[in-house]
Amino acid sequence: MIFAEIFILAGLAIIGIRAPIRKKWWKELAVFIILFLIGASLMIMQAAGLKLPFILDSIEGFFENVLHFKY
Questions:
Q1: How far is it, in rounded angstroms, from Cα 25 to Cα 35?
Q2: What is the pLDDT of residue 1?
Q3: What are the structural domain ranges in the chain?
Q4: Do 32 and 20 form a contact (C-beta atoms < 8 A)?
Q5: Averaged in consecutive runs of 10 residues, what is the pLDDT profile of the chain (71 residues)?
Q6: Is 68 helix (H, G, I), strand (E, B) or coil?
Q7: Nearest by Cα to 36 from 11, 60, 4
Q8: Are 47 and 2 in contact (CB under 8 A)?
Q9: What are phi and psi of 24, to 5 degrees?
Q10: pLDDT at 26
Q11: Rounded-to-integer distance, Cα 10 and Cα 59, Å
C-alpha cells in the first residue's frame, strides 16, 4: 500500500516540477519541493500508523509564547 502512495507522489512531483524548470522559476520550485516533502512525509507517517500531534495546538502556542498574542 505504501508503495502505491510513493508512486503516486513521484508522479505528482514530476508533473509539478516540469513547468517551473522550463520557465526558470527556481524560487517557486524550491518552495514547491519543500512543501511537497513536508506533505509527503506527513502522509507516509500517517499511513504507517503513527499518531501525529494536532497542529493547531502548536500554532496557538507559537502565537501566545513567541508573538505574545492572546485571543
A1: 16
A2: 67
A3: 2-66
A4: yes
A5: 78 78 81 85 87 83 84 65
A6: coil
A7: 11
A8: yes
A9: 60, 40
A10: 82
A11: 30
One-letter amino acid at 21 equals I
Q: What is the DSSP letter of 66?
A: I
φ/ψ (deg, to 5) at 50: -75, 145
Q: Which amino acid is located at 38 in the chain?
A: I
Phi-psi region of 24 (alpha: psi -120 to 50; beta: other; left: phi over 0): left
Question: Where do we find the cell 509527503?
Answer: 40
Judge whether 1 and 47 are in contact, CB under 8 Å: yes
Amino acid at position 35, single letter: L
- Rounded to the nearest 10°, the torsion over CA 12, 18, 20, 24 is 160
3-class SS shares of the chain: helix, strand, coil, % to 5: 75, 0, 25
